[in-house]
Amino acid sequence: MDPGKRLTGTLAIAVFTAALGSLQYGYSIGVINAPQKVIEKHYGRTLGLWTERSSVAGGNATEEDEAERHPTVVMYWSLSVAIFSIGGMVSSFLVGFVGDLKGRVKGMLMVNVLAVAAGLLMGLCRMWKPHIMVISGRAVMGFYCGLTSGLVPMYIGEIAPKAYRGALGALHQLAIVIGILISQVIGLDFVLGNDDMWPLLLGLSGAPAILQSILLPLCPESPRYLYILLGKEQEAQKTLHRLRGPYDTTSDLEEMRREKEEADREPRVFILSLIRSTVYRQQLFVALMMHLSQQLSGINAIFYYSTAIFAQAGVSQPVYATIGVGVINTVFTMVSVALVDKAGRRTLTLVGLAGMCCCTVVMTAGLSLQDQFSWMSYVSMTAIFLFVSFFEIGPGPIPWFIVAELFSQGPRPAAIALAGCCNWTSNFIIGITFPYIQAWLGCYVFIVFAVLLLGFTIFTYLRVPETKGKTFKEIAAGFQKGRKGKVSQTSTDVKELQQLKTSTDA
């Protein structure tokens, strides 16, 4: 084996430490769902809609149910869920700024203050008004997760050897689904999802940040950041030795030197510049479409509302079926980690999207015919499990790290920020609109996702390149070949790069 491709202990610690931020992100996604009824009851009690005294009186269950359905409680509950995505949408624009301010490692260390603060707000919510404390904590946690969902793939992508860049990049998604699964299990009523322990359940959202803060000082900074952004060649070389053991770093340093020269010639592209640019339009379009395909596939409709969907499919204990989805989620993300550097990013994404499209059709047939044929409920369940499996094979993990592969150093932070904002925004839209679409279309709701998935499959086949085994420069150059068929186009690109170089927008 090439010494530069070895998986060393330092590299393992660095990737594990970074992925703790992803674990926290996943936990925060899933933790709010299981104790919904318990939290709503506490909201109603704080707002004076239901009291402890009424629990002794007859008919208290009806009064409590009415309190939970009260428009004020519904509003505060909806805000508790949605504010998380809003926080992520806002902070995703700051990923490039935070990552470049003090480096990737110190950037992750800085934002952990937000996670700990959010955990304390939610964990101590009984000390004041629970609805205000929880909503505030979820907003801060969403702001943190918007940053970490960009910083983690950026750091892992820059420290990973080329041969393992896909597998290590997919660990971001693996950590997310493990976090979701952990939140589902400890959110069960007999664990922490009960009347007494739910503040602790929410407060644990900040726990991974404490462990990560202890471990981050042991992690080396990204050698690409050190060399390309700071010009510290010797420090970059030492970091490469720490990450990959003793080996000849000439080829890696040469690749970084060429990329640094390119970065010095090309502008440090900011978000508005990137949106307006025609030079990077193809890469940006592919990056945004891949993130849209992840969220508009319908996967979060399954995650957010799986308990209700399983109940509709006739499952007697839907909460355990939901945990089963979490287990399958985790297992098939591991499959993706094993396959992504062998089968390739494009192939796995195509297989995943096409498989999910077929599953949505079968799911719709099962839900629509279960009243006529009782065994159709099993067809629906199987389709849901396969849907999640296909998602985690490609469309789940790959968009997170492929954005870092599609762009060179200059536009990379801005592209990751835009892709992250696109991801968070579409996540928020699905979370808000799905219940209304479901009420309108009933059991045919997944036909909408089938049509979208078919479109994304065709787009991936026609427009998404294979990035397996290629350097960042080779991938970026591949997009430019199609644009340089004419001399006039090349001269236009040069002029635009010069304009971008003098641009000062952020």
CATH fold topology of the largest domain: Growth Hormone, Chain: A
Low-confidence stretches: 53-59
CATH superfamily of the largest domain: MFS general substrate transporter like domains
Specify the CATH architecture of the largest domain: Up-down Bundle
CATH class of the largest domain: Mainly Alpha
Helix content: over 70%
Total strands: 0
Order of helices and strands: HHHHHHHHHHHHHHHHHHHHHHHH
Strand content: under 5%
* Tally of individual helices: 24
Secondary structure category: mainly alpha
Overall spatial form: globular
Care to describe what's here?
- With 506 residues, the protein is mainly α.
- The protein folds into two domains: 7-50 and 71-219, Growth Hormone, Chain: A (Up-down Bundle); 267-496, Up-down Bundle (Growth Hormone, Chain: A).
- The protein is built from 24 helices and no strands.
- Residues 14-468 form the Major facilitator superfamily (MFS) profile domain.
- Belongs to the major facilitator superfamily. Sugar transporter (TC 2.A.1.1) family.
- GO terms for molecular function: D-glucose transmembrane transporter activity.
- One of its GO terms (biological process) is dehydroascorbic acid transport.
Offer a quick outline of the entry.
This protein is mainly α and about 500 residues long. About 75% of the residues lie in helices and about 0% in strands. Helix 7 crosses helix 21.
